[in-house]
Amino acid sequence: MTLSTTAADRAWVREVATGIGALRGRALVDTVLAAVAHRLRSELSTYAELDLATLRLPDLAADRPVDRTLVRRMHHQLTDHPLFAPTVRRSHPYPAGPLQVTDVLSERQWRRHALYREVLAPRGIGAHTVALVVGPTPVLSWYQFNRDRIFDAREMDLLARLQPALIAVHRCVRLPGGPVPPGGAGLTGREVEVLRGIADGLTVPATARRLGLAAGTVRKHLENVHRKLGTSGPVATVMRAVALGILEVPGPRA
Fold it and tell me: Kind and range of the H or E element at 72?
């Protein structure tokens, strides 16, 4: 039986999420870079961490050799990068979901931007960049994928589905199932189960099938989760749940 495009995308997200559940450190980063770069056919894929207090770049990984001069120049000009300048310069919260440069600048403006014209273009790095933040503060951490054609709506949706699982794994939170621990915003066990489905990149209908519930019931549980956590949308909700210590990291399934 051939999966539909949407079903195939969901299956890929679940496969990646379960595959990285037990990974940590560079093994985690390298696995994510390889999986997403292959799926998006990106020309350069990187992972970076930036201490927002000191603007020091403590870690950077790439899926191909990158000379340190390029890394230093990209770091020095991060305060001018259209995706990161508001966060780095003025401590504005980074937008929650995946974002590409053409969401904030026209392609023509970006190609004329000093960072692209002087640093990226001479090295054959594609003009189109998408950033996927997995840790907002105090250390901004993100994956970045570059190529020479725009990322379409389906690909952005794919990244949005994967992002909650990446956030959870990068925070290295692993809690057993069962009652929500103290300080967990009063979520019920069922609400946590629904939240785990969302963190695995599942849609509401898919979460409903996993739990044997009606889709309307799952939506109601999600409404309660959003109300109790004071959030809206899957990424912000997962990030809040991780911060409170109530989310289980996706792990390998039997």
Answer: helix 68-76
